[in-house]
Structure formats: structure tokens, C-alpha cells
Amino acid sequence: MAKRPTIHDVAAAAGVSRGTVSRVLNDDRYVSPAAHAAVRRAITETGYIVNRNARSLVTQRTGSVVMVLSEPHEKVFEDPNYGVLIRTAIRRLAERDVSLVVMLAGDDGDRERVLRYVRGGHADGVFLVSTHAGDTLADALVKTRVPAVAQGAVVGRENAIPYAAADDREGARQMARYLVEQGRRRIATITGPMDTPGGVQRLEGFADVLGRKASRRLIEHGDWTQLSGESAMARLLERAPDLDAVFVASDLMAAGALATLRAAGRRVPDDVAVGGFDDSSIAVSTHPPLTTIRQPLAQVAEETVRLLLELVDGADRVEPVILPTTLVVRDSA
Amino acid sequence: MAKRPTIHDVAAAAGVSRGTVSRVLNDDRYVSPAAHAAVRRAITETGYIVNRNARSLVTQRTGSVVMVLSEPHEKVFEDPNYGVLIRTAIRRLAERDVSLVVMLAGDDGDRERVLRYVRGGHADGVFLVSTHAGDTLADALVKTRVPAVAQGAVVGRENAIPYAAADDREGARQMARYLVEQGRRRIATITGPMDTPGGVQRLEGFADVLGRKASRRLIEHGDWTQLSGESAMARLLERAPDLDAVFVASDLMAAGALATLRAAGRRVPDDVAVGGFDDSSIAVSTHPPLTTIRQPLAQVAEETVRLLLELVDGADRVEPVILPTTLVVRDSA
DNA sequence: AGAATGTCTGGGAGCGTTCACAGACTGAAG
DNA sequence: CTTCAGTCTGTGAACGCTCCCAGACATTCT
């Protein structure tokens, strides 16, 4: 690779000093129009590109943030929600010329690496995804005082780590109400893990509507994977063969539940109505297509990024953002 | 954030000079056991973490590579293959303590940004994903002489950009042979875009087996999206209502084809056999589950990363890697 | 006129590393 | 005892940038 032009070369080409070039680069005031034009021309002529390392060295800013995916490796990206999140975050960050480093935090070694990376000052901020309650990394990051936000609250750290999320509880209520209105009498639910906000709050919303009808017999827990949806549904069928509806806390798990129901010879929605949550791409590719709760995940990602950038820009604290959900009726319920 | 310890602090704590600490850090020879121990201790005591910016400034190496996703924004991550790729790459790179920056290259602005980023020396290498023939970015990167590899050949640049890929052509042959053996007579195909290797070679393999039976009437093109699978299937049904099998070049598109067939009242596999390609997570969540060709995508990603790291480490050139595929029989054919 | 204020520019210092070099010390070979 | 090769260590000079300060100059106010 040929030697790249430095700020010196630009300064020489423009007939000004480094200082002036730097001022132009950083959009400072106090640069005469003539100098400004000369520098701009010199920049394009020389093909100059600022060296972020050198800049970071003095500014202590890197122009990049890291997205941390806190799931066991094989689960990461199983749910299409991950794709939406990452794609949206990259786009929003790109607008500000901030780049996104993606790291996995599925085991202790990973978490150690992430921490070293962040403590090393290699990222201006951290975007936590699918962080479970009791995550040691989240605590360590808070202690490091690095700007950090999460997609969805971190259970137990709601006040320490700002977040954007869908209104999980109200969303679950919407689905529960709908199932009741449809005349379903024995409504079960498959929740997410109880150390995630989606797990907890979607169950709460469900219970809000069902009241004491939400008996433990009709509640099963999954771990967001399709397979867990399958097995939770199987347990449910065994324990409550007379159920006529099930609210599954994610579309992916709902796809699993659907498979189990089919294998058991139950027709959907005739025998059993199935309600999902997310309105992810899966919802339209199952058979039958899922009636589900749409959460505006792209918008959640955008808001999360916005919060993070505000923190990076020096805001002392930012308020969590909760976005509304909507019921999407298809064929499964 | 409290001031982070520098190499000076470590040197002082260990009672040696910067140079010695640097030698320990970089695993150099010529450090006495005593000095080595003292430095190691000082490092843990002070909680020292090397500043990569300062290091990069002098070494001209960044310890990070960038993965470039060359699809329109809304298509990126629609296919679960992306997840497998990115997750595997991150893991493999992490073993070498290399971090992964993910960038989108869906439009010209994006490509410009990627190019600036790479030319700016912010990444040691580039991992291209889903790059189409005629991609200007790929050419520009080759010209920049930055280490670059691709997942799947870049059509037209097979020799300029090393890659790892599944044996698309042979995989397609396997499926075509299987459908023939099953007694199917009028076998159609839905290909990927003809400017991608998967699009071209899976059609070639199909044609290898079907010979002149692979008439243009029985060939339709999709763009890898589920929706394109739906519409391609619809066009096929209109043009060749008597078809009794269809080989779809990706599971995601096959899911779309399945939906169209169902809507048209064709039973799968009774009336029409459907063969997919990828054996992605979708294959088991469709109804019926897809008979498909497994491509070892995680392994492809691993090999691609390996090639990239070799180039980054200074290898002049590396040989492309082609990995075998296998037929996976489920219910759709 | 002189002072005060504001605009613009150049250049030294420093960010935290690695690298090359010079020099000190050791032990073995002549 | 000298020479030489090998081992080990410290230090100055980069790497490419931003920040800060001093100073030049122009304009306005008293």
C-alpha cells in the first residue's frame, strides 16, 4: 500500500499549517473562506483521509460502539429479531459516521474479552442486546461508567441502564383480551425466560387480563428458541389437554408450538388458537400465518441508538423509551 | 472515567523501562525471566490494558476486520444464513482477538463509506458477503490492495478475490437427481439472481442433470427473498401448470414457493415436490419440512475467515475452498 | 489616538505505543 | 586475557492527529 497522505501533506498542498487543516476538518470556527477553500481542494487533490487512530489517541473518542449479544452462541441470530436490530443500528449509526463492532457474550471468556475491549477505550459506548438478569457483564460495564444502553430493560438494572423497548405488558394484554373476545375459555401461555423483560412482562400482561384463570397449570416457560416452544407446547398439552388457546411470547416459539399442535392432531385455529408476539418475519411464513402482537423493533433499535449517542455526547442521563404495540390478526387465532 | 494506566505506569511499577514492557506485551524474545515476571505482575496490579489506537498508529495494524453486507437494507438478514455467517465469523476472529465491524453496502453512499473506512486503514481486511457481479466496491477494494475475501465467489472476480463456498453445482445436481429418481417428470426450478454464484451454479447443476428437459419454460428467477419465491412460483404455475416438482435455490425462497402452492391448492409433496437449498433453520419450520441440500455454512464462514487471516498475516495468495454438500430428505419431496 | 475585542493563523506539546539503536553484561572460544 | 556472539535493557524518535497558546491583524468603542 502506498504511503497515505497525512495532514501535513494537505497543509503543504494548501499552503497553510496543520492547525488550519485540523480546524477545517473539525468544523471549527475561525477559518477564513480562502483558507477553507484551499484546504478543501487540497483534501480532494491528495485523497486525504483522516487517521482515526491518531485522532482517537488525542480525543479519547473512537467513533465506534460495540453491540453485545448476550446469548449462548448457537441461539444468537436464531430469532430474526436480531437481524432487524443489528441492521437498523448499523444504519442509524452510519448516519453519524459511527461504526458498529459486534461481539458475542455467550460465555465468561467472551464477557472478559468484551470488558477488556471496552475498558481499553476501544468503543465510545455499548449497546446491550438480550441481556439477562444477573449478567455480570452489565454490572461491570456500569461500574466502568462507559455509556451503555440496552434493547429492552435489563431486569434488576432498569435504572442503571437506559433502554428502549416495546410495551410488552400492554402488548400481552392486547392479545389476551383478543383471545377472550374470540370466546376462548381455557387460554394457556408459553412465556420467555423469566430473567428477561419480555419473559416477565408479557406474562404479567397476560395475567392482568386472565386474572385467576391464569393458573400455573396453564403457564409454561420457554427460552425464546423454536425448540423450546415445541417442548413447552407438548408439556402444556399433556397437563391441560382441554386448552383451546395459547399465547406464545414470541413468534419463533409460536412456530415451534404450531409444529407440536400439528403433530398432536390439533387444528389451528379451530381446536386451538395460537397468538404470537413480535410480528417478525416468521409470522407470515408459518402455516397458518400467525395472529400476533407487532412490536416496532426497528423503531426500538433506532431509539436505543439515539439514547446511546446522547450519552456518548455527554448527556448525564436519558429517559427510557417505551413504544406501543399493535394487534395483528392473521389466521392462527 | 479515571485515567487509565499507560505503559509508563506499568514500567514504573515493574521497575523496568517502557521497552521491556512492550517486549513482554508483544511476546518478544530477549526478556529475562525476572523482568518478565515483574512486568506481568505490574500489569495485573495496575489493571493495564494496551491502547490499540496508539499501537495501530505505529504498527499500521488495527486488529479488526470489516464484514460488508452487499444487499439492499431491507433484504439483509432476511435470510437466516446471514446470522450463521456473522456469528461464526465473530467467534473465529475472537480466538485471534480480532474484532468484527459490520457494515452495510446497500447503496452508493454506503459503499463510499465502506471504502473510506478501509482506505483510512481502519481495518486489516475485508470479508465480503453476498457480493453481486459488477459490484463497484469489490473492484475498488481490490485496487486498494487491502486483504479481501468473499463468502461465495464474486462472479467475474473469481481470481481476484479468494473465497470459500459450498459446492453449489454439485449440490444442485444431487437435488435434481433425487427428484428424477423419485419419478418426477416435469421439474421446474426457481434460481437465485444470476449475478450471484449461487444463482448461476445451482442452475447449472440443475441443467447438468435435466439436460434439455430444463427448458426455459421451467426456469424462473428469484432474488433470494421469500416474496420472490412466492411470485416466481406463481409465474411457474401459470406457465407450466403441469409441473410436478420444483427445485428452489434457497430454503427461504422455497418457503415462499410453498405458500403459493398451498394457496393454489397443490399438495406438497403429493402434487408437487419441493426441494430447497441451504438446510437453514427455515427448512424445519415450514410445513411440510423441506427436503433440501445442506451446505456447511458455518464451515464456509470458518474457512473464509481463515483465508482472510492468512492474507492479513502476509500470505501473497490463498486458494479458494469448496466444501461438499449433502442431500437431506424430509417431507417436501 | 489608544484600548479593547474579535478573527484568523502557525507551531509546540502531547496522546500511548512500537521500533531501531546503542550499550551493558554474560559466557564461551581463541 | 581478549574477542566475540548472544542476551538483555533503556532511550530517542517516530506514528498522525488535536489542543492550546501566542501573536498578527482588523474592527469597533471610548
Explain this structure to me?
The structure is a homodimer of 333-residue chains. The model of chain A has no long low-confidence stretch (mean pLDDT 94). Chain A is built from 12 helices and 12 strands. Chain A folds into 3 domains: 53 residues, 434 Repressor (Amino-terminal Domain) (Orthogonal Bundle); 128 residues, Rossmann fold; 127 residues, Rossmann fold (3-Layer(aba) Sandwich). With 333 residues, chain A is α/β, with parallel strands linked by helices. In chain A, strands 2-1-3-4-5-11 form a 6-stranded parallel beta sheet, with helices on both faces. Chain A binds a DNA duplex (30 and 30 nucleotides) through helix 2 and helix 4.
Features:
homodimer; alpha/beta; Rossmann fold; 3 domains; 6-stranded parallel sheet; 4-stranded parallel sheet; 12 helices; elongated; transcription regulation (chains A, B); transcription cis-regulatory region binding (chains A, B); HTH_LacI (chains A, B); DNA-binding (chains A, B); Peripla_BP_I (chains A, B)
Architecture of the largest domain in chain A, according to CATH?
A: 3-Layer(aba) Sandwich
Q: Supply the helix-strand structural class of chain A.
A: alpha/beta
Strand content of chain A: 5-15%
CATH class of the largest domain in chain A: Alpha Beta
Strand segment tally of chain A: 12
**How many alpha or pi helices of chain A?**
12
